[in-house]
Amino acid sequence: MSRKAAELIEPAPATATNRLIGAVLRAQSGFFWVKTEQGILECRLRGRLKKERQATDLVVIGDQVEVTPVGNGQGAIEAVLPRRSRLARRAAGPRGAYKEDVIVANVDQVLLVFTCAKPEFTPRMLDRYLVICEHSELPVIIVATKIDLVKRETAAAMFKPYEQIGYPVVYTSIISGEGIAELRERLIGKISVVTGKSGVGKSSLLNAIQPGLNLRIGEVSERLTKGRHTTTVAELIPLTIPGGGYVADTPGIREIGLWNLPAEDLAWCFREFRPFLRDCYFAGCTHLHEPHCAVREAVERGEISAARHDSYARLMTNEDTP
Fold first, then answer.
1. Are 266 and 131 within 8 A, CB to CB?
2. Is 294 within 8 Å of 276 (Cβ atoms)?
3. Which class for 127: exposed (0-12), middle (13-18), buried (19 or more C-beta within 10 A)?
4. Closest Cα partner for 75 from 47, 105, 34?
5. How confident is the model at residue 88 (pLDDT cuts 50, 70, 90)?
6. Quick count: other Cβ atoms within 10 Å of Cβ 12?
């Protein structure tokens, strides 16, 4: 198991002030369930933390936090340790403002799950996810599901543009079992987040990787919430496969907005653009309409996918509708 995953799974010992270092396994309605060396504690934020005004979530699953036990299996979160990575999107804030919606913190890799059919494959939404992961410098694995519903060559054609620019694609079917063993290998010893649109089969895929995982997710939810009203939330679940690991099975996401991404950085997030970015004639080229644009010339030569450039253009002009 990687050192990062081991650090999350094995809570740190108490500090001199009797605080514990633990990992947030679940967050819901102001309650946080933190794995510590004393077991899982149901925690609330200290008042001073609540008063901190931030344009992001104070505590999310995957966060490493300092906790003071207060008895009866409960605790108070005193501080949040710096995040080494995060998967985040833009969310609406108060009075029409925007804030960062962190889906999960301290992850090693992101599995982007997209179907070949039912629901229809949406490449522009995949491009949005990839931009977010590139901006956060998070490794990505694209998981193509339900390949049994289309011809193999049809599935390959859908995702070929992404394989050509270096993204690993794992083709899977929970009906035939294809790709499940390969995906299981990629999860070993890693802290992974599985995300994608509703209906793409994320939970079924996880259940195929580790039989009974769906049931375990339900059991953990029931145990952690202790009878409270349950809503659909993200949760960090340990894997029992040889080598271990952790996985966050997130709720289906209908829209994925870009957070805090300067327009001048967007082109860099399209990794196939990078070899050409310094060759444009004009400094500050937007790669949309300027003459002697190396990126657009690469599109014309077929070295960059026209569909990917169209996704970039729509994001640049705020015309994208996933």
1. yes
2. yes
3. buried
4. 34
5. confident
6. 16
Query: Could you tell me the two tokens for 9?
Result: 């799974």
Run of H or E including 221: helix 213-225
* pLDDT for the residue 54: 62
Alpha helices in 28-164 (DSSP H): 47-50, 123-135, 152-164
Other residues' Cβ atoms within 10 Å of the Cβ of residue 165: 16
Put residue 3 in one of left, alpha, beta given phi > 0 → left and psi -120 to 50 → alpha.
alpha
Measure Cα distances from 101 to 49, 130, 143, 299 in Å.
18, 17, 23, 34
Q: Which of 44-48, 63-67, 105-109, 142-146 has the lowest mean pLDDT?
A: 44-48
**Residue 230: pLDDT band by 50, 70, 90 thresholds?**
very low
* Per-residue burial over 33-68, b = 16 or more CB atoms within 10 Å of its CB, e = otherwise: bbbbeeebbbbebeeebeeeeeeebbbbbbbbbbbb
Decide: 170 and 142 in contact? Cβ < 8 Å: yes
Cβ atoms < 10 Å from Cβ of 255: 12
Amino acid at 50: K
Task: For residue 142, report the phi and psi dihedrals to the nearest 5 degrees.
Answer: -90, 130
Distance CA 159, CA 170 (A): 10
pLDDT at 213 over 80: no
Q: What would the two tokens of residue 60 be?
A: 């999310």
Looking at residue 224, its amino acid is L
Q: Is the peptide bond before 168 cis (omega within 30 degrees of 0)?
A: no
Q: How far, in Å, CA of 169 to CA of 247, rounded?
A: 18
Helix (H) or strand (E) holding 278: none
The DSSP bridge partners found for residue 89 are: 101
In eight-state DSSP terms, residue 271 is: G
Q: Please count the residues of the chain.
A: 322
